[in-house]
Queue: 2 jobs
Job 1
Amino acid sequence: MTALAESPTVIEASYNKSNSASQEWLNNYSGCANISLANDNLIFYKVFVTAPIMSEKAIQIISKLNSFKALQPNWDSYGAIPPRKSTIDKAISTVKKFDENQLPLYFTAPGPNGELVIEFKNGEKEAAAYINPDGSTELVMNEGDNFVLEGTLEDNYKDLLKFINF
Amino acid sequence: MPEPILDSDDLLRRVPFDIIDPVYIRPDQTVTSMAFVLRKIDGILEDGLSVEVARLTTPQASINDIKKFRLYAIKASYVRQINLDCVHNPLSNNYAHALIVGEIKKSKSKQLSLGATRVRFPD
């Protein structure tokens, strides 16, 4: 579950760049971190936790999205195009927004044409948000076999919030 | 010579798989809609989704490479029920090959994923 810090919290620490877990954590908070470089390996940082703390699921999904940067052309053996960095970055910022709104993140996957999907699940209710290589988005929502909506994420975000969270 | 596909036929779809990261297989073992998205080849959408007619092949032959793929089955009747169609499309090296055809938008991809069930081969 997403938790909101009641008041701004300052975390001051340092970490070694060779520590991949720290690197991933810092990447997730880079938007609110004040980072200074002591030397090539040691970084000092202050994090002002005024933004919502991300859920474990969001961190997991973002980590998986970042892993898609390593996909090579033909990654599925049928000529699939790997997602562009810009598509992955857009998906990550979208996941952060979803998480702030406590949407039930469930799964993410790359598509054959460089697109990405972020899926939500709340019982029988499901939704899939697609981030296309050209930056456009699509949204599909269904409750079991009943398809509720197909449109863009931008035009239907409020509908998504109402549908999936209640 | 193409054969009619019966409503009772199972259609097998290969899904990319990796032991470390199942890619298209969700935590509940259902498959993501991405497994049923048409791909563009040189900017042109493919004619349909490639599947194999189960009664004309075996899971061993259909899976091709157990290190890279898993199989999901979908009934031909279900494909038709959601206003798509399936046609036998034998290839010189694959008589069981067929295509799911029609306007496959993302909602159809999602519907296809909802109708697909995991074929327990090899595990």
Note: Residues 1-9 of chain A have pLDDT under 50 and may be disordered.
Job 2
Amino acid sequence: MAFSNDMRYLGCLFLVLTGSNLLAETPAIYIDGRIVFSTVTVGGVPVWSAEEQAAVENLHGIRGRDAALVFYTPDNFEIAVATSGIKFSGYSDFRNCVGDKQYLADKLDDLPVSTQRRLKSSIDFLRGRNSQR
Amino acid sequence: MKKALLLALAWISPLCAIEPQTQASTPFGHNTFYLGNMDPLITAIKGSVQIVGSTGPAGPQGAQGLSRNYGVTIGTLGVQGVNYASNTINGLNQALSDLGSSMMSTNTVPVTIFFKDGVYDMTGSSNGKGNLLWGVPGSSGVIFVINDDSKTIVTNYGHLSGINVDAGSRTFTSALINMKDNSEYDNFIIRGAQNQINRDGSAIINTYQSTHTRVHDGLFKEYIGAAGSSYEGQNGAVRTEFSTDTYHYRLTFSSIAVRSNTEALNPYRNVWVTVNSIGSRIEDSIFEGARSLSVDFNIGGWNNAAKRNKFYIGAGAERDGPNYGVITLDSDGSPAQGSSTMTWVDSNEFIFVSTGPGGGGSSCIRSRSIPTGIWAGILITNNVVSSIVRTNWYFYRQVGGSVFNAVLKDNTVYNMEFCFADSGTGTIWTSAGNTCNGILQ
């Protein structure tokens, strides 16, 4: 019985460790109103260009830190929210929209009428996806 | 008419009279006034040395018997009209000994010692509590030099004014000037410090485990910074560690060298840095040729501030831009990571003087906390960025780690490719009076 519990624990740990980058949110940054995803992190630090990757790898090397690359692919819902055309007040606003069903519903409801009319198709799509979460 | 003038003079003349007992002329060119009735003790110790002491009953409690010694002059060998002629620390030590003063923090006999123009090897010297070592303000004539790269020139418990330093392009590994509790250093020029070697505590001016220090009205020439340390806060031109209320103002950092493009990326070239300290200030200062890590708020700090500084940013400033900004708020300190809070970056000017600078991720202000240690509370207000042409930089950039509740308010950014990039939690940028290239955010 004890062996069985251990195995179950190890199994869960394995899933968490190996699948973390699959389940975790994709690293992104808010740049002047736009959300830009990063597809790779260097020792946990997201980068957006080869030059940036080299600089961060260099710094990790000097520090003697792990500079392992972890690759990410933004999921469809993240992309849908990021490219919907709705304005985000910052990175936290975007993250809350992706991670909090009620937050996104409220934000969509609170958009100005003109924005709701202009972005009707993408807002309807988001509402549909949001309700399925 | 003449009669009226004479009458007027006769009327005001009593107002100008000053009791001889209540004033004494000092070598500063102004008068020192003593409280109460004086019973001056004037004793010639050597040459023109004078000790003026009060044995009177008046004055603040505990002030009886205190004395202030002044007028001791040191000159280099062969100089006439001085009390001590010496090119080395020996003259200073002899003067302190003769006056009954000391070079330590426990000094109870404050003295003023003047240095005549000349070059003095003051390796390993110390300025005692309350003592003033004085050169002519604005003069470059009094120059302290060092002959041992591992030693400090002056450990300052008192006040240095008008004392210049020439590091002579030496590969020094220590702090040239060490600031101690309640010490002050002003009206100076420091040059020849471009070959500073990395070592923990290596700096031009270092404040370590001290409080209430003031460094101001100084000019730094020919500084590049040490490379290859273990973490950013180990060294710098002006460095503060484990200290409180350290004020640095009206400083000019001139001829700050940028790293060459052929040099390997190396981030550890601070100009002004504070580590594990509270109330460190850099204010009203000028950074000519500013580049990454001109100002580094390193690990474990709070209530630190950079206010009303000017950063002239030229070509080459972008080196290691992805990791560091001109002002860096940095909790990425290994081996010792520490969290930081409340740091205020206010009313600074970032002036791009070259059309050349550019590079992935370069920023005026960079906050980071990689991999551990958090920043909770960054206040960035009223700063201005100006560039003649559109420049491939960010005004503010935060990537990775844990930065919480940064507030950016009323900043004005002209001609930047990007104004604001952030992945922190709870950052406020929009609806806070910030403008980016003419657009209210």
Note: Residues 2-23 of chain A form the longest helix (22 residues).
